[in-house]
Structure formats: C-alpha cells, structure tokens
Amino acid sequence: MTVLPTVSVANFFIGKAQEEGKTITPMQVLKLVYIAHGWHLGLYDKPLIGEAAQAWKYGPVIPSVYHDFKHYGRNGIDRQKAMLVEGQPIIPTVTDTQAQEFLSAVWNAYKHLDGWQLSAITHQEGTPWSITWEKCGGNHFAGYPIANADIAQHYAELAKQRQGSRT
C-alpha cells in the first residue's frame, strides 16, 4: 500500500460515518486519521499518510485536517472535503482495497468513541504526543512534529499488548 493523501483518509472516515448515519466531528476526524496513521506505522512500519503529525496543546494534530474542517467547530461534518482539479470539484477517496480494509478496521475499533474520548487516548502520559510535548516545553504555538519513529514504537507496543492479552 502506498502513502495516502491525508484528505482521502479523512474523507474515508467521514464517508463511513455518513453510511452508518453517525455524526462525526472535526476532532473525531483529526484523531481517527492520527490513530490510523499510528496503527499503520506500528503494524507495517510504513506511514499511512505523508504529512507529519504535530504536538498541539490538546493532542496530536494533522494540520491539513484541522484546517480543512475547523470551520465546523464542534458540529458534525456534513460533507467530505472536495478539491478543485482542473477547475472541477472532486472528492479524494481511498481506492486501494487493502487500504479500505485497514481503515475499516480502525473505524470499527474506534467509531463508538467521541472526539474527547479519542483525544484522551492520544493525549496520555507516555504517548508520542506527550513525549514531544515535553520536549518542546509545552509551547503549543510551535507545532513541533511528532516523529514517525515514536509513533511506530508506541503503536507496535500497543499491538504486542493486545496480542498478549489474546493468548
């Protein structure tokens, strides 16, 4: 699977919510994209998206996702993000079957959590966000990148913990 455009991953989760009649907020989309990226790094040691996550005050943020959907505030997102290509609006989607299956698994694991619950998961002590946040001295205006290596290690450890709990 190749690196996916961040907007396509965000649109995937918005589309899943719409298919299931669920409301999805910008915070949920932000955190789901980050979590999916984390699991992909942890399981396959390859990034899902090409954009770096940043340590912001309330957790990890993918800047383009934040800017694409911030105008919704705390309200539900009512449509996928369209882009202009040669003057025509298109909605970037995930077309790779393997990527769709992976993202569906992430969606099914986390769709029951609201934005604050997802934020709490990514905001805990010892997470890549908290490690980066401490390194930058809590300066939320700097937008410090969270290293993919830290994200990969964290999610690989989570995968091992979950595997161990099944045996």
What would your notes on this structure say?
There is one protein chain. By secondary structure, this protein is mainly alpha-helical. It has one domain (6-162). The protein is built from seven helices and five strands. The chain has a three-stranded antiparallel β-sheet. Strands 3-4 form a two-stranded antiparallel sheet. Strand 1 and strand 2 form a beta hairpin. Helix 1 crosses helix 4. The longest helix is centred in the first third of the chain and has 19 residues, at 26-44. The chain is globular, with a radius of gyration of 16 Å. The two termini are 29 Å apart.
Labels describing this entry:
single chain; 167 residues; mainly alpha; 3-stranded antiparallel β-sheet; two-stranded antiparallel ribbon; 5 strands; Antitoxin SocA-like Panacea domain-containing protein; SocA_Panacea
In short:
This protein is mainly alpha-helical. It has helices at 6-19, 26-44, 63-69, 97-110, 115-122, 128-135, 148-166, and strands at 54-56, 59-61, 83-85, 88-90, 144-145. The chain has one domain.
Low-pLDDT runs of 5+ residues are none
Total number of distinct structural domains = 1
Order of helices and strands: HHEEHEEHHHEH
Biggest sheet descriptor: 3 strands, antiparallel
Beta-strand level of the residues, as a percent range? 5-15%
Work out the radius of gyration: 16 Å
In the sheet with the most strands, the strands line up as 2-1-5
How many strand segments? 5
The rounded distance between the terminal residues' Cα atoms is 29 Å
Which structural class do the helices and strands define? mainly alpha
Query: What spatial form do the alpha-carbon principal axes imply?
Result: globular
**Helix count, per DSSP?**
7
* Overall pLDDT: 93
User: Helical amount among residues, as a percent range?
Assistant: 40-55%
